[in-house]
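Please decode residue identities from the backbone states below.
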């Protein structure tokens, strides 16, 4: 770990998916203790950034760099990134039939910590965290995400975070498909994890999530680039005016001056 290095540093990041460039020069700096919100319309590259951060093999970095505590993430596989403290909460978590929630969590903890977790300690912490998320005790015997409602899937993502205590939390539209009560419960779970030892990158379409999770910085991603950064007032501006203004500004900035001149 480099002394004084930011938790996450992204510089001039370009990412291709199946030969098509999606991210076209993303720059982002997240320090420990900070909450960053990344907002943008569909197709802007928000999910691509989250998958690239986690090391999905389909998302190919062609230029730029990503550093975690000063270490090059491009040299790390997804499993090593997880052990280093990176956690991705998915927009649409996959089901794993035949694997019980309790077994999944204990195995994940062992992998991240590098050693087994005593059963008594594991059960005590799991019960406490599930209680905070208003989850029934019987939940641990269910198969991972199989037959879960949208709210149950998202609470399970937060439960994983609470148990693994990652350094960098990346949330890919975790508010998608949730009603107000579920958003509140999920957000409270995230807020309990906030502190000086970890940073959060919350990817979302809508300002409503940010009513519960207060961002320190807000970024607007349009067509694969961050086109504006600011404080929470930027999210309120987006809520009031939408993305059209930013899309038009981006299109104008990318149009050659000579184009359209007779």
């Amino acid at each position: 770990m480099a002394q004084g290095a930011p938790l996450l540093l992204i510089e001039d990041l370009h990412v291709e998916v199946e030969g098509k460039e999606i991210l076209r020069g993303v720059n982002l700096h997240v320090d420990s203790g900070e909450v960053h919100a990344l907002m943008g319309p569909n197709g802007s590259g928000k999910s691509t950034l989250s998958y690239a951060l986690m090391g999905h093999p389909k998302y190919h970095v062609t230029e730029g760099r990503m550093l975690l505590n000063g270490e090059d993430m491009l040299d790390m596989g997804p499993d090593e990134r997880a052990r280093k403290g990176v956690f991705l909460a998915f927009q649409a978590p996959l089901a794993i039939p035949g694997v019980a929630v309790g077994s999944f969590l204990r195995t994940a903890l062992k992998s991240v910590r590098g050693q087994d977790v005593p059963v008594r300690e594991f059960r005590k912490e799991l019960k406490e965290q599930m209680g905070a998320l208003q989850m029934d005790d019987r939940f641990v015997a269910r198969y991972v995400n199989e037959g879960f409602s949208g709210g149950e899937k998202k609470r399970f993502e937060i439960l994983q975070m609470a148990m693994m205590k990652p350094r960098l939390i990346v949330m890919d539209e975790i508010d998608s498909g949730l009603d107000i009560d579920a958003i509140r419960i999920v957000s409270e779970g995230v807020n309990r994890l906030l502190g000086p030892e970890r940073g959060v990158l919350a990817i979302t379409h809508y300002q409503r999530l940010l009513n519960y999770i207060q961002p320190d910085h807000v970024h607007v991603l349009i067509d694969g680039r961050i086109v504006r950064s600011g404080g929470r007032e930027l999210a309120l501006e987006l809520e009031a005016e939408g993305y059209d203004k930013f899309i038009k500004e981006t299109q104008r900035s990318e149009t050659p001056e000579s184009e359209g001149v007779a």
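Observation: The CA atoms of residues 11 and 173 lie 23 Å apart.
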